Structures are given as C-alpha cells and as structure tokens.
Amino acid sequence: MYKETLVKDLAKIGQINAAFRTMAPRAAAIGAAILFLVIAWFVATLASGGGANQNFVIAAGVIGAYMALNIGANDVANNVAPAVGSRALTMTGALIIAAIFEVAGAVLAGGDVVSTISKNIIAADQIPDSRTFMWAMMSALLAAAIWVNLATVLNAPVSTTHAVVGGVAGAGMAAAGFAVVNWPTMAKIAASWVISPVMGGVIAALFLAFIKARIIYQPDKIAAARRWVPVLVALMAGIFSAYLVMKGLKKIWKPDALVIVAIGIGVGIASYAVLRPLIRRQSQGMENRNKSLRELFTIPLICSAALLSFAHGANDVANAVGPLAAIVNAASSGAIAAKVTVPFWILAVGAAGICAGLLLFGPKLIRTVGEQITKINPMRAYCVALSAAITVLIASALGLPVSSTHIAVGAIFGVGFYREYHTARRTHINHGRYGGDKKMPRGDPVERAKWRKLVRREHLLRIASAWVITVPAAAALAAGIFFIANAVAR
Predict the structure, then answer these.
(1) Are 480 and 149 in contact (CB under 8 A)?
(2) Does the residue 204 lie in any domain?
(3) pLDDT at 234
(4) pLDDT tens sequence across 55-111
C-alpha cells in the first residue's frame, strides 16, 4: 500500500544519513585536531616549569601546535600533489611518505637554533620590553595560523612563510610603529609573488616542451626514452641532491656554493651510469605508446615527493616553532634575542603538528593542487617537481625570498597553459596539413582548440588572490589581535 507521507519521511531519513556520512569524517578530524591541541597544552604546561610567565608559554605552545597543524594541512600538499595527480602515488601512499619525511626533516635537520624574527622582518631591539615582544610574537603566530586555516578551507594553497612574515610585520608595527619593519625586505617578498610562480611555470613548461619534442612525438618512443629518460632522471637526481644540501640540511651543514655544485654534478653522473642500463632493461618489451613512458617516471616522482617533504620539514617547521621558541626564551630570560636555542619539546610539537595536519586535513588540498587545476600525468609531474627544485636553487643563489608553494603551484599552471598553447598549435598545423576540414571533426577545429581551456580559471583567480593578500591579511589580523590582547591584559 503506497503511503506518500511515509515515502517522504523515509526520503528525509535517507538525506539525514547521507549528510551524517559526509560530515562524520570531518567531525572526527576536527576532534582529533582538538585532542592534539590538548596534548600540546599538557606538554607546554610540563615544560613551562611553573615560572613567572607560565601562561605565556602554555598559550604559545597551543598556538604553535595550531600553526603546525595548518602548515601540514596546507603547505605540505605542494610536495606530493603532482605525484598523486599523476597516479604515481595513491593518496594513502603519499600521506605516509610525506608524514615520514616531514617529521624526519623537522627532527633531524630542523636545527637546534632558529631565527626568532622571520627573515629579519622587524628590528627586535625597537620593541619596548620582553612582555610586549611576547604579545607581539603570540599575535603574529595566531594571525598566521588563522589565515592559513582560512585559506585551507577555501582550497587555496598559500605560503605559510609569507603568512608568518605578515603576522610578524603587523604585530611589530602595532607594538613599536612603522619604523620597526624592514621595508626593503618586505619589498623583496612582494616581488617574489610574481617572480617565483612565473619562474616555476616557465621552467616547467620548457621541460615539458623538451619531453614532448624529444620523446613523446618521436616515431619510436621507446628508443627515444632509452636515450633521454636516463638523462632527465639523472638531472633530477643531481638537482635534488643539491637542493637537499642547500635547503634540507642547511641548519646542520652549510657547504659553500662550489661544494653544492660538485655534489649535484657527482650525483647526476653516478645516477646516469646506474640508470642507463636499468631504463634499457625496464623498457624491454614495452609498447610504443605514451602509457609505457609514464611507467619510467614513477619511481623518480616518488623519490622527489620524499625529498621535497624532507626539505620542507627541515625548513618550514621554523614557521611554527620560531615565534614559539622566541616567546619561551623571552619568558625564561626576560630578554629579546635574535636567535634562540629550540628545546626538543618545541621541535617535537612542530613536527607532530605538521604530520597530524597533513594526515587529518591534507587530502583536500592535495586533490585541488594535483587533480583540479589541470590534468597531470607522470611526465608533467616530473616537470613540476624538477622546476620547483631548480627555481628554489636559482632564487637562493640570487638572494630572492621565494615561496616553494608559489613555485610548485606556478609550475602546475605553467604546465597547463603550455598544454593549451601546444594543443592549439598542433591542431592548427594538422588543420592545414589535411586541407581544411576534410578529415577533421565537424566545426572549425582550429577555433575549438584555440578556446579549449585545459586550466581551470576559477582556481587561478582564487589562488592568485589569496597569494596577493596573504601578507597584508596576516599583518592586519596580527595587529588587531595585539591591540585586543594588550587592552585585555591591562
């Protein structure tokens, strides 16, 4: 017997169940994050030792843990997203590899001394006293964390370093006026918003053009792959070894430029000697098609994701623990220091927070960067990863404060826009070769290719907007938090 009311009620129950299934994982992740913050509070309470400024240390410990969660949720995605988007790694495999190497980089190479003022953004000696300094650093850290959290919710990969820089600048201005900020350094950072993504995109596009010309569009793809894939992978090995020494190990070993170059060349030559016979054996019996070529780039992509994660953990853990270590040092000594020793508990909180943020909230942004901006295959992912390492090396040599996030995302856009250009160009050539529309699909194929969009513009606009306002937004938030905290404290 048909009951319309009963059918409607059952449909509503089904909708409620579907909504619950959708919300339950998110709620569980938020619950786990809150539990981590409680653990951080407990650790900071034990570490504070009941001193005069115990509440500062505890609050800073929780805020630092919150910032570390957001770094893991937002910043780490750029290291593994190309490998996930190209199907070289599954999401689970990417999360495991990134978590292991992020923690290893933070703990093994994160350094026991960090700069308390990110990239010399403000002159600490102009801040009146240590208590004002602690409020400023806490405001900067909280503002940066809130901004990165908001960007993650909006699916926008942003630079956590720039967020911290903006927070420190804003809190510094609120505490001691505009003169406290190092404006030439801020100008360099603003310039990097354009320089780093454009440089990353151009380098990635150039490598993709080379791969298409020398391998993909050759009559015998396998023979071309045997000739060039060992060269390309050896180049990646050399570049990444130099990248690891310069960025991932810089806090425990600082070789000069000649040593870094020698290491990169040596590793590249050794890799080529090993890889050439391996690639030849691996390519035996492969079909002459693009799918076969993709298999040859899988292992290099996995290695690149691991090395990028290690270097990121070694460098960007300072974004969470730098201001935190400054607060702890000022609370215990009553002085403002330019560089401080980082207690192990602070480094552990930062490393654990990055790992937890990645596992709990990272997949959302990994999918956005790796799958939704443009279609990625192993060859394109290789170009993105190699471009990221090369651009960081060039920028570091030139003294440019670039963002690895901007570079990686810019490289993905560069690959996508090059695909649009290349598709339109080849369609135009084929259109002329076959005499108009005789052997082409109905309609004008040249015009269709000209307007075919292989990059999603909505992501470009959203991400670019988030990049531009990261520093001013974090600065405004930090200044507001500082004024409110100061007023309440009085």
Answers:
(1) no
(2) yes
(3) 94
(4) 889 999 999 999 999 999 998 888 899 999 999 899 999 999 999 988 888 877 776
Q: For residue 414, what is the enclosing H or E element?
A: helix 404-433
Residues 6+ positions from 285 with CB-CB distance below 8 Å: none
In a domain? residue 17: no
- Whether the predicted model's global pTM rises above the 0.85 cut: yes
What is the Cα–Cα distance from 51 to 36, expressed in whole angstroms? 24
Residue owning tokens 């190209």: 86
| Residue 255: inside a domain | yes
Q: Say how many C-beta atoms besides its own lie within 10 A of residue 209's C-beta.
A: 14
Residue 206: which pLDDT band, with cuts at 50, 70 and 90?
very high
Q: How far apart are CA 479 and CA 490, in angstroms?
A: 17
Cβ pair 116, 137 in contact under 8 A: yes
Going from the C-alpha of 223 to that of each of 146, 286, 361, the distances in angstroms are 52, 10, 43
435 within some domain: yes
Write the CA distances from 328 to 53, 58, 91, 134, integer angstroms.
Answer: 9, 9, 37, 9
DSSP output for 24-48: HHHHHHHHHHHHHHHHHHHHHHHHH
Element spanning 115, H or E: strand 113-115
Q: How many domains does the chain have?
A: 1
H or E stretch at 341: strand 339-341
Query: Is the pLDDT assigned to residue 291 strictly greater than 60?
Result: yes
d(CA 74, CA 160): 8
- Give me the domain span that covers residue 312: 31-489
Strands 113-115 and 339-341: antiparallel
Half-sphere exposure of 395 (CA within 13 A, CB side): 28
